[in-house]
């Protein structure tokens, strides 16, 4: 019998979150961001699940776009980093992928080659990662049009949209608007997940919801459920040992945690080898029998320890929720000094994914496993 550590993927919750993004996008349309293996949930799985709701997918790179086609989906796909070599351009043109151009070397590849994919321009409105300076945008567009390339859109990315106190998003929006207003008729996109929760934010034509689709909060100081989002991944395992510890006894490597009172300890068969964060501190919550119980000691590669003192009738074999409906992944991330994006994308391949279509179902269960 396999080890009962798995990730349940609630596809109904995924669809709920996408529809919420669409509602918050107003008159704009939402494209589903499914990069990084669908934020750890399985790219092909989430793309298929959203195929009737979204009109467009967004990915980081060509391999991810190809995976969407291999899943049998013909939707438009936006490559947000564009291509990484000129030889990829013919495939993009053949498959109907829209290529983001963010640097002069990509512009030169298009000018010197025969491939003619559709193109979006990336505008650097202040984040200073990728994109053309606002003053360069018109000239770049003219060069592409001269080369016979259809420029159909423009985008930018926000640096501080998750911070409700920051005015930087408003400033970036104005910079982008001024740089692209004369490029009509093109489609424009600025809104990441966080921008959907900023009152009065301009959405332009397309929004790009990412982490919010998977139930995690994109806003500082908030958990997903506070924003109406539902957890898509429930990471679960089982208690494999229960023992009573006396005051003064230590738990785990380095004896980093020591009992101050009689403690009922449980061992859970999951660790950083599965993607649970090694730096989750003592006190990080897990869910057992509907009760929150704190992690104690250091997380090992294949196991972690929890304090069961407040869990009634805890026993070997009980399911343990590491994050999901009871324990928000955002809370676990905060306890580990990281963000939910890293936790969701970091669940390793030795953890099978089980597809679930009923968000009300709880507990370990059978289903479609991959």
UniProtKB/TrEMBL annotation:
The pathway noted for it is:
Amino-acid biosynthesis; D-alanine biosynthesis; D-alanine from L-alanine: step 1/1
InterPro entries the UniProt entry points to: Ala_racemase, Ala_racemase/Decarboxylase_C, Ala_racemase_C, Ala_racemase_N, Ala_racemase_pyridoxalP-BS, PLP-binding_barrel
Q: Which family does it belong to?
A: Belongs to the alanine racemase family.
A Pfam entry, by short name: Ala_racemase_C
Would the keyword Nucleus be found if you checked this record's keyword annotation? no
Top-rank taxon of the source lineage equals Bacteria
Q: Which reaction does it catalyse?
A: L-alanine = D-alanine
Q: Where is the Alanine racemase C-terminal domain?
A: 232-356
Q: Which residues bind substrate?
A: 129, 301
- Functional summary from the UniProt entry: Catalyzes the interconversion of L-alanine and D-alanine. May also act on other amino acids.
Q: Where is the active site?
A: 35, 253
* Protein name per Swiss-Prot or TrEMBL: Alanine racemase
Where is the PTM N6-(pyridoxal phosphate)lysine found along the chain? 35
Q: Tell me the gene name.
A: dadX
Q: Which organism is it from?
A: Marinobacter zhanjiangensis
**Necessary cofactors:** pyridoxal 5'-phosphate
Per the UniProt entry, the Enzyme Commission number(s) are: 5.1.1.1
Keywords, comma-separated and alphabetical: Isomerase, Pyridoxal phosphate
């Amino acid at each position: 019998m396999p080890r009962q550590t798995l990730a349940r993927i609630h596809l109904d919750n995924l669809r709920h979150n996408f529809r919420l993004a669409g509602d918050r996008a107003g008159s704009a349309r939402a494209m589903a961001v499914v990069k990084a293996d669908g934020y750890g949930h399985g790219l092909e799985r989430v793309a298929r699940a959203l195929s009737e709701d979204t009109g467009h997918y967004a990915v980081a790179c060509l391999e991810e776009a190809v995976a969407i086609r291999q899943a049998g989906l013909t939707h438009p796909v936006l490559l947000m980093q564009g291509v990484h070599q000129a030889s990829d351009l013919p495939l993009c043109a053949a498959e109907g992928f829209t290529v983001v151009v963010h640097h002069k070397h990509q512009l030169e590849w298009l000018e010197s080659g025969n491939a003619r994919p559709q193109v979006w321009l990336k505008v650097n409105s202040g984040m200073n990662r990728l994109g053309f300076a606002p003053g360069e945008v018109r000239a770049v567009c003219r060069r592409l049009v001269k080369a016979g390339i259809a420029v159909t859109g423009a985008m930018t990315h926000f640096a501080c949209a998750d911070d409700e106190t920051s005015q930087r998003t408003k400033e970036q929006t104005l910079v982008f608007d001024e740089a692209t207003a004369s490029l009509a008729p093109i489609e424009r996109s600025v809104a990441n997940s966080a921008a959907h929760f900023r009152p009065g934010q301009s959405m332009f034509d397309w929004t790009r919801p990412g982490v919010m689709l998977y139930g995690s909060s994109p806003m500082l100081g908030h958990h997903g459920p506070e924003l109406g989002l539902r957890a898509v991944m429930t990471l679960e395992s089982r208690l494999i040992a229960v023992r009573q510890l006396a005051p003064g006894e230590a738990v785990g490597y380095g004896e980093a945690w020591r009992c101050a009172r009689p403690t009922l300890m449980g061992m859970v068969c999951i660790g950083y080898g599965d993607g649970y964060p090694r730096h989750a501190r003592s006190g990080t919550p897990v869910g057992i029998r509907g009760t929150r119980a704190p992690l104690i000691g250091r997380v090992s590669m294949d196991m972690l320890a929890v304090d069961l003192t407040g869990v009634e009738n805890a026993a070997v074999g009980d399911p343990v929720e590491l994050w999901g409906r009871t324990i928000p992944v955002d809370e676990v991330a905060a306890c580990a000094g990281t963000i939910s994006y890293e936790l969701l994308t970091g669940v390793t391949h030795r953890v099978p994914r089980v597809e679930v279509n009923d968000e009300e179902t709880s507990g370990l269960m059978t289903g479609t496993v991959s």
